[in-house]
Amino acid sequence: MSSYQEVEVVIIGAGFAGLAAAFELKKQNISFVVLEARNRPGGRVYSIKTADGVTIDMGAQWIDKDHHRINKLLSQFKLKTVSTFKKGKDIYNINGKKVISKKPPLSAPGLLDLFQATTKLNKVSKQINLNAPWCSLEAKKYDGQTMEQLLIKTRCIHQGAIGIIDFC
Ligand SMILES: Cc1cc2nc3c(=O)[nH]c(=O)nc-3n(C[C@H](O)[C@H](O)[C@H](O)COP(=O)(O)OP(=O)(O)OC[C@H]3O[C@@H](n4cnc5c(N)ncnc54)[C@H](O)[C@@H]3O)c2cc1C
Fold first, then answer.
1. Minimum-distance ligand 1 atom for the alpha carbon of 17
2. Which stretches make up the Amine oxidase domain (predicted)?
3. Which of 2, 23, 92, 110 has its CA 20 to 30 A from that of 70?
4. Burial class of residue 111 (count of CB atoms within 10 Å of its CB; 0-12, 13-18, 19+)
5. Atom 45, ligand 1: residue with shortest CA distance
6. Cβ–ligand 1 contact at 60 (below 6 Å)
7. Please, what is the Cα angle at 78 between 77 and 81, to 5 degrees?
8. The whole model's pTM is what?
9. Residue ranges of the domains in the chain?
10. CB proximity list for 153: less than 8 A, separation 6 or greater
11. Distance 13 CA to ligand 1 centre (A)
């Protein structure tokens, strides 16, 4: 016979958003369950260890001083960060080939697509209220579309350009 447990909140996904929500609910003593489709928590935040024991971040890795909420979580959980650098050469992995280049190593049409798409993204991001994104004028519209749909709208079809935006 299956047993049922009643909870006040169901959180879908154990990525950072879901885990942070669970953390807040726990503090408020509100009952919840977190449902995760994968066999691990963390979502896009994911690290692996190489054979020689080096940890490599496959997802989120950089935190800036402006990332107030994640910085708060770091201090709450007493986690340490390591410094990184912003200056230096950009290294691209193009089909397994290492390319060092000041600009993305794309053909002219690829660079044009990348420029158009990043211009559009920068324009859209300026309309978003960072403190309450859901209150922004077009919040519903942007929340209801995927990155792929946005790229199609800006006519960004070059695979290299999509790959670079996808990674960012
Ligand atoms: C390569 C890469 C590098 C990045 N670098 C940075 C960085 O340097 N700095 C930074 O701040 N951010 C970075 N990001 C972005 C950051 O990882 C994400 O913004 C953040 O992890 C999103 O968290 P989330 O909880 O909203 O979503 P996710 O991490 O995507 O979590 C969603 C979870 O929900 C689960 N799920 C989805 N649907 C269902 C369902 N129907 N039922 C059950 N479970 C479901 C998924 O399996 C997943 O575990 C990077 C992302 C990638 C991929």
1. 25
2. 16-155
3. 92
4. middle
5. 13
6. yes
7. 110
8. 0.75
9. 1-87, 94-168
10. 120
11. 9
Please list, in sequence order, all residues whose beta carbon lies within 8 angstroms of the beta carbon of residue 45, skipping any fewer than 6 positions away: 15, 16, 59, 60
Among 134, 112, 138, 110, CA closest to 124: 138
| Beta strands at 91-94 and 97-100: parallel, antiparallel or unpaired | antiparallel
With a 6 A CB cut-off, is 36 part of the ligand 1 pocket?
yes
The band of 2, judged by pLDDT with boundaries at 50, 70 and 90, is low
Q: Which CATH code fits 1-87?
A: 3.50.50.60
Residues 116, 53: Cα–Cα separation, whole Å:
41
Distance (Å, rounded) from C-alpha 66 to C-alpha 88? 22
Burial of 114 (0-12, 13-18, 19+ CB in 10 A): buried
Mutate to test the pocket of ligand 1, among 40, 44, 66 (most ligand atoms within 8 A of CB): 44
Tell me the per-residue pLDDT of 114-151, one tens digit each, with 9 for 90 and over: 899 899 889 888 888 888 888 988 888 888 988 888 88
